[in-house]
């Protein structure tokens, strides 16, 4: 696993974010260090996307300071799969090559080296056999791998994933998350993942940032993911259990939570 | 009309055939983006706005005769204003973009009728210009048209990757440092120039058809972007040649037969594709 160093890859200090005069998040203090695996979670509409846009540089802060590493921030961005248009007749190779466009001149075309790098990235995410397959014909998991390959081909030092497992079945979700974990652990890439799937985030991230009530609270999973904290955030009685070393978050109404209440004599 | 007479007629009308083929090729190319970007009605609306510009030029010609002699200038200015409006992705948080496009189309249609009604030119003459007529095209006009189309094609050829990237995944392009608003605006400007110039010769109906039907045909069969462009341009050129010849043979205006041929090709491709898939 990559060790975090003293310098931050990106650091928000007392930052306010919003649109026009409307503030969505206030007084954000967030530090993403080298080698981090940070999950950003929160209820719908809490400001996760706003936060993400600010990190990507698509939204300027209303106030505060955003600093990036002196060695240069190279972001590999994996957008939500559904936001990528499946109407375009593009192959996996075409899409992955887009990740190399930044390095080309305004009128430059991808070179042999760019194509080799794209092929390498495609191989790295395990879809070499799909390189020339039309992107619209791929399954959800394959599309996600193609988008991760596009993010990797630019040799990023920060990989940002927006809802990477949204709408996937359990097997595909696990496969994608294992791939992300491998990229973090073996390749030393700093990972920042936005997701509303708490169970996924808490079992793969090292640290977590919870977006809610116009602020962001950041810390270690153990201190942030507690029944009390989540119940307060979502205004629901939420249980956090640990089973075989993995955290399981149970919303109200699930059989398991009812069973816990029964055991505690809480349900008549 | 006998076949030798038809051949002679084609030879006599070579300039208007060449103009139609040029319009077909450039509109089919840009049409691929229009269909993929789901802005088909922007094409229709801009074509209508361009027509309103032509009608306005004839109305203004009462006071400024030069304007009536060069309606393209007014049409171009009006169309470019329309492109500036439509290239803005979020004009209003409350009103959907397609509603704004629809309003633009309706207002332009109403203004066209009003301008034509008050135009000092003969109604038939104005209507003919709005419907488009490559038959009356002069060599100088043809050269201007081809010049504009070559410039548009060059811009698209040189900045292919930018147009593709911004159209396909605007957010990702922005994270890569692309000025997405700027590239969108440039795309819309090329669209505005193309429509303004094309509509003078081919008319509203044909230009709109060229922007949509060949592109859909191309996208139905192609698995790669270059193939989609090639098939779109190819079917547009074939439709134009066959439709133009058909129009000469049975003495019809050229646009309807060209559109009919393009639609028949699309229907054949669509049906064959379904048949192949079902098997």
Q: What would you say this structure looks like, in words?
A:
The complex is a heterodimer of chains A (268) and B (279). With 268 residues, chain A is α/β, with parallel strands linked by helices. Chain A is 32% helix and 26% strand. In chain A, strand 1 and strand 2 (22-33) form a beta hairpin. The N and C termini of chain A lie far apart (48 Å). Residues 1-5 of chain A have low confidence and may be disordered. Chain B has 279 residues and is mainly alpha-helical. In chain B, 84% of the residues lie in helices and 0% in strands. Chain B is built from 13 helices and no strands. Chains A and B meet through loops of A and helix 9, helix 10 and helix 12 of B.
Tags for this model:
heterodimer, A: 268 residues, alpha/beta, 32% helix, disordered N terminus, B: 279 residues, 0% strand
User: What is the radius of gyration of chain B?
Assistant: 19 Å
Helix count of chain B? 13
The helix content of chain B, as a percent range, equals: over 70%
Biggest sheet character of chain A: 6 strands, mixed
Secondary-structure blueprint:
The complex is a heterodimer of chains A (268) and B (279).
Chain A: E1 8-19, E2 22-33, E3 37-41, H1 48-56, E4 63-68, E5 75-78, H2 92-97, H3 112-124, H4 140-152, E6 158-162, H5 170-185, E7 190-194, H6 198-204, E8 207-212, E9 215-220, H7 221-224, H8 227-234, E10 239-243, E11 246-250, H9 255-263
Parallel strand pairs in A: 3-7, 3-8, 5-6, 6-7
Antiparallel strand pairs in A: 1-2, 1-4, 8-9, 10-11
Helix pairs in contact in A: 3-4, 4-5
Chain B: H1 3-12, H2 14-36, H3 40-60, H4 65-69, H5 71-87, H6 97-117, H7 123-131, H8 139-158, H9 160-168, H10 170-175, H11 180-221, H12 225-250, H13 255-278
């Amino acid at each position: 696993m990559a060790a975090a160093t003293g310098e931050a890859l990106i650091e928000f200090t007392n930052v306010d974010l919003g649109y026009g005069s409307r503030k969505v998040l206030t007084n954000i203090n967030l530090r993403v260090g080298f080698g981090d695996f940070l999950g950003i979670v929160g209820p719908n509409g809490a400001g996760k996307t706003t936060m993400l846009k600010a990190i990507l540089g698509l939204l300027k802060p209303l106030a505060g300071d955003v600093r990036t590493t002196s060695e240069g921030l190279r972001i590999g961005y994996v957008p939500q799969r559904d936001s990528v248009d499946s109407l375009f007749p593009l192959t996996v190779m075409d899409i992955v090559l887009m990740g190399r466009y930044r390095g080309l001149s305004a009128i430059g075309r991808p070179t042999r080296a760019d194509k080799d790098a794209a092929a390498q990235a495609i191989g790295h995410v395990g879809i070499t056999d799909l390189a020339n397959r039309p992107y619209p014909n791929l399954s959800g998991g394959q599309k996600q791998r193609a988008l991760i390959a596009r993010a990797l081909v630019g040799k990023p030092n920060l990989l940002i994933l927006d809802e990477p497992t949204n709408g996937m079945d359990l097997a595909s979700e696990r496969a994608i998350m294992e791939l992300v974990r491998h990229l973090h652990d073996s390749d030393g890439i700093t990972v920042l993942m936005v997701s509303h799937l708490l169970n996924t985030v808490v079992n793969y991230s090292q640290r977590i940032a919870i977006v809610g009530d116009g602020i962001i609270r950041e810390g270690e999973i153990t201190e942030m993911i507690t029944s009390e904290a989540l119940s307060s955030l979502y205004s629901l009685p939420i249980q956090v259990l640990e089973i075989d070393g993995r955290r399981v978050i149970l919303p109200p109404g699930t059989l398991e939570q009812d069973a816990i209440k029964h055991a505690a004599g809480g349900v008549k | 009309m006998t076949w030798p007479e038809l051949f002679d007629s084609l030879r006599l009308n070579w300039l208007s055939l060449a103009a139609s083929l040029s319009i077909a090729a450039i509109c089919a190319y840009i049409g691929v983006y229009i269909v993929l970007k789901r802005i088909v009605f922007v094409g229709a609306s801009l074509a209508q706005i361009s027509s309103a510009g032509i009608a306005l030029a004839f109305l203004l010609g009462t006071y400024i005769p030069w304007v009536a002699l060069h309606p393209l200038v007014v049409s171009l200015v009006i169309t470019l204003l329309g492109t500036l409006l439509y290239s803005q992705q979020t004009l209003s948080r409350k009103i959907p973009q397609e509603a704004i496009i629809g309003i633009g189309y309706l207002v332009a249609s109403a203004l066209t009728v009003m301008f034509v009604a008050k135009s000092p030119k003969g109604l038939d003459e104005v209507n003919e210009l709005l419907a488009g007529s490559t038959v009356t095209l002069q060599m100088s006009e043809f050269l201007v048209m081809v010049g504009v189309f070559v410039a548009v094609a060059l811009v698209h050829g040189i900045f292919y990757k930018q147009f593709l990237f911004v159209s396909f995944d605007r957010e990702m392009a922005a994270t890569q440092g692309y000025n997405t608003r700027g590239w969108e605006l440039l795309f819309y400007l090329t669209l505005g120039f193309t429509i303004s110039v094309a509509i003078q010769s081919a008319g509203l109906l044909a230009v709109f058809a060229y922007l949509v039907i060949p592109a859909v045909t191309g996208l139905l069969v192609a698995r790669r972007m270059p193939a989609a462009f090639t098939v779109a341009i190819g079917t547009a050129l074939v439709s134009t040649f066959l439709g133009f010849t058909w129009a000469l043979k049975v003495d019809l205006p050229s646009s309807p037969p060209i559109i009919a041929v393009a639609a028949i090709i699309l229907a054949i491709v669509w049906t064959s594709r379904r048949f192949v898939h079902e098997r």
